[in-house]
């Protein structure tokens, strides 16, 4: 195998497929990148047996062939090379890489031992704008559970129907829902899939992402396809929790606060909340303020008030400030955020409305 390709194109391609390499695998072949050259095209593949990535670029192929090279070493070499033509030549056991005055010889692995790229026939698919979907995933994927005993909670529920995209995630302590209107390729039938949260976020952060991407499903796979890149992962099977039954029909207290002001106040007050991550929210309907307070037997206490528009009665509730931070960060860029309360022992609901509507339900903690 022999080909010539630009350093910049090769570096970008390796950046795409490196996300699929097995990092701590006992199988050396999984830490490699499969390279195949034919008819002016280079195809790169990586897999850790849970996800598989395939990406292709144009190149001057002088002799077709295939090989597997250590992905980490190859990527480290290419990123240090000057932006010039890179020549690559491989035989059964080694490959040589040359760029201007730099020369490298690497041991290779047998390409026939590399796992075959998953074959699939999509049962359902939908084409979506990638920029909007990325913003939506950023708002919900941190809410997915890390508990491996309940894999369904590690996923994000994606539904597309009547040009409305909705994402839902929960870890049983909190729930995040966001939706947005956009033109989609979906038909009258709704598209539904439970996508692993880490996979969803990872796929959308691939540098070769295009303006629109195709998401499809098979019986056991979820497939992302965009440009010259295909990303295949195992889908989560099962029934997602009925989150709609958790949403109350109304509230007794509604509070509207400035997002930036709330974030800054929460950051200062929570400095005291080291051993106990709870921050108390005291809503004063008459004074039009929300007082944030935290206390620690060892450190002391902190308080700060935030101006607010309050409808309903005064109320107090304690919330895990780490979870509130995730909510406030997800609403960054919005001017206001609303907090709806029923009682000190019922969930608090944060809401923001913009091009992406956002709802965040959070269970209270003991005061």
Q: Considering the protein shown, what is the CATH homologous superfamily of the largest domain?
A: DNA Polymerase III, subunit A, domain 2
CATH class identity of the largest domain: Alpha Beta
Could you tell me the number of beta strands?
A: 26
Q: Tell me the count of domains.
A: 3
Widest β-sheet, arrangement of strands: 14-11-12-13-26-25-24-18-22
What fold name goes in the CATH topology slot of the largest domain? DNA Polymerase III, Chain A, domain 2
Question: What spatial form do the alpha-carbon principal axes imply?
Answer: elongated
GO molecular function: DNA-directed DNA polymerase activity
Protein name: Beta sliding clamp
Subcellular location: Cytoplasm
Keywords: Cytoplasm, DNA replication, DNA-binding, DNA-directed DNA polymerase, Nucleotidyltransferase, Transferase
Would you write up a description of this structure?
- The chain folds into three domains: 2-113, DNA Polymerase III, Chain A, domain 2; 124-243, DNA Polymerase III, Chain A, domain 2 (Roll), CATH 3.10.150.10; 250-362, DNA Polymerase III, Chain A, domain 2, CATH 3.10.150.
- The protein is 17% helix and 44% strand.
- The chain has six helices and 26 strands.
- The model has no long low-confidence stretch (mean pLDDT 92).
- Helix 1 packs antiparallel against helix 2 (71-80).
- A nine-stranded antiparallel sheet has the order 14-11-12-13-26-25-24-18-22.
- By secondary structure, the chain is of the alpha+beta class.
- The protein is elongated and about 80 Å long.
């Amino acid at each position: 195998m022999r080909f010539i390709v630009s350093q910049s194109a090769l570096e970008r391609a390796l950046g795409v497929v490196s996300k699929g390499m097995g990092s701590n695998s006992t199988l050396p072949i999984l830490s490699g990148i499969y390279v195949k050259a034919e008819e002016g095209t280079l195809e790169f593949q990586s897999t850790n047996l849970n996800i598989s990535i395939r990406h292709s670029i144009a190149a001057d192929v002088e002799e077709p062939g295939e090989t597997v090279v250590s992905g980490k070493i190859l990527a480290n070499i290419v990123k240090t090379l000057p932006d010039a033509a890179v020549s690559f030549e491989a035989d059964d056991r080694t490959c040589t890489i040359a760029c201007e005055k730099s020369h490298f010889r690497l041991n290779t692995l047998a390409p026939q031992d590399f796992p075959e790229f998953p074959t699939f026939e999509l049962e359902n698919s939908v084409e979506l704008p990638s920029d909007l979907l990325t913003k939506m995933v950023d708002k919900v994927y941190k809410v997915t559970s890390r508990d491996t005993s309940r894999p369904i909670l590690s996923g994000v529920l994606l539904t597309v129907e009547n040009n409305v995209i909705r994402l839902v995630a929960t870890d049983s302590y909190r729930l995040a829902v966001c939706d947005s209107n956009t033109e989609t390729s979906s038909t009258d039938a709704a598209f539904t899939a439970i996508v692993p949260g880490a996979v969803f976020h990872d796929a959308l952060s691939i540098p070769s992402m295009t303006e629109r991407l195709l998401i499809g499903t098979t019986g056991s796979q979820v497939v992302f396809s965009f440009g010259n890149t295909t990303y295949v992962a195992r889908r989560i099977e099962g029934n997602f929790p009925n989150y709609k039954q958790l949403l109350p029909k109304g509230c007794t207290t509604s509070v509207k606060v400035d997002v930036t002001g709330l974030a800054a106040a929460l950051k200062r007050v929570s400095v005291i909340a080291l051993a106990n991550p709870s921050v108390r929210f005291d809503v004063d309907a008459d004074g039009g303020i929300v007082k944030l307070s935290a206390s620690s037997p060892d450190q002391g206490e902190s308080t700060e008030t935030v101006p607010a528009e309050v409808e309903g009665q005064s109320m107090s509730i304690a919330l895990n400030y780490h979870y509130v931070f995730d909510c406030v960060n997800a609403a960054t860029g919005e001017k206001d955020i609303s907090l709806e309360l029923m009682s000190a022992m019922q969930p608090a609901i944060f809401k923001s409305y913009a091009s992406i509507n956002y709802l965040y339900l959070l269970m209270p903690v003991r005061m």
